[in-house]
Amino acid sequence: MTDRHHLVGLLLGAEDDWPRAFEAIASRIGAFEYGGTRHVLDTERVHIAPFNLRDRARHDVVIDRLAYWYYHPREWLKKVALMDDVYLLNSPFTFQSMEKHAAYCALIRLGMNVPDTVLVPHKNPVDNVRWAYTARNYNDPFNLAEIAREMGYPLFMKPFDGGGWRGVSRIKDERDLLSSYDDSGEMLMHLQKAVEPFDVFARALTIGPETMVMSFRPDEPMHNRYAVEHDFLSAGVGQEAVTIAQTVNAFFRWEFNSCEMLIQGDSVLPIDYANACPDVAVTSLHYYFPWAMKALVRWTAFCAATDRRAKLHVDPDPWYAVADDPNLDYTDKLASYQRLADAHFDTDRYQEFCASALADIDDLVLEWVSSTEFDTMLLDTIRSTYPAEEQDMFIGHFRGLVDLWISDDAAIRTPH
Ligand SMILES: Nc1ncnc2c1ncn2[C@@H]1O[C@H](COP(=O)(O)OP(=O)(O)OP(=O)(O)O)[C@@H](O)[C@H]1O
Ligand SMILES: [Mg+2]
Question: Is any atom of ligand 1 closer than 6 Å to the C-beta of 260?
Fold first, then answer.
């Protein structure tokens, strides 16, 4: 039997940790069998060069971490998706046009508990010669303080297409409101009701049909934001968090995304869920990094080996049929959304694929995370991330968390 090789392109910014992890795991897997064929994942870091629109891409799957700010590779991604059937994590067709604001709209329509949100016109004139005329004739005067008073303080003001905490401010009174609006300048801002106090901040990282819901501490420095905590949500709330994250992704055809939700009692309030380039650095995810790498390799392997076809555009109808069904309550709707998400991600077949074609991935990743190769990757990442005087502290910190994962993972899989 000849092996079928699938080329996976990694389109990267400055990161080197997870690409090394991905390359190491893919190469340790070597050939795997599925559907009577032996498959091999080859990896290649994608370089940026002039391309003829008629060139044919050699890749089967591309994992993109760059195109949200670098437009040449973004246009290459569109070309290879449209012309060469390359499967993308994520597709710029929906990530470019459907940012945080669109995701709020969709989830509100689907009946989720998105906090009350108002989109406010730009503070400063838009850079266009026609603006003065248009604004004079069509911009209604409005009283921002009155809108805020009606919504009730505290509020958050943040860009409609936010990311990386750019331009986010918490607003406790009218003074904060006016100064934040002045500062917003040419950014287009949402005003959103603060969810305070909340019991838990849950951040769900989703890759294909796999979701890890983690307890998140946004006020901590980056290396300490994800708490290693298990069972911090009741079963029902945990499932709701998974369903919300997978609904957003299946609805918009996103594959690799993180979703932030605030939990108040039994209510789950989604506040941020359009991250085209979710943070997967080993220095952020630490304990959860091996899971994320496994999920990324598994989903990529599945997409390649099953020749999964990308859907370039959203199809809201089946979702809205559930949303608008007067006979369904919120719990029924969540169950229906989960079924739609499972159908979109082909979850049953995916699980069967993981169990048969990649049955040894858990052992192989445990062995790799325990190896000096992993430790070298960790040390290189720490050295390139932190100042010299802090490196020893971080080496101890992250090695400790990785060792904890190793012992937990070994314990889970050792038969008692
Ligand atoms: N409605 C809200 N209620 C309470 N806290 C909020 C709300 N909106 C935002 N925040 C806080 O502000 C932070 C940043 O907001 P948000 O996640 O929407 O912006 P972002 O630019 O996408 O940030 P990041 O890329 O770091 O996720 C959140 O992590 C949360 O701590
Ligand atoms: Mg956020």
Answer: yes
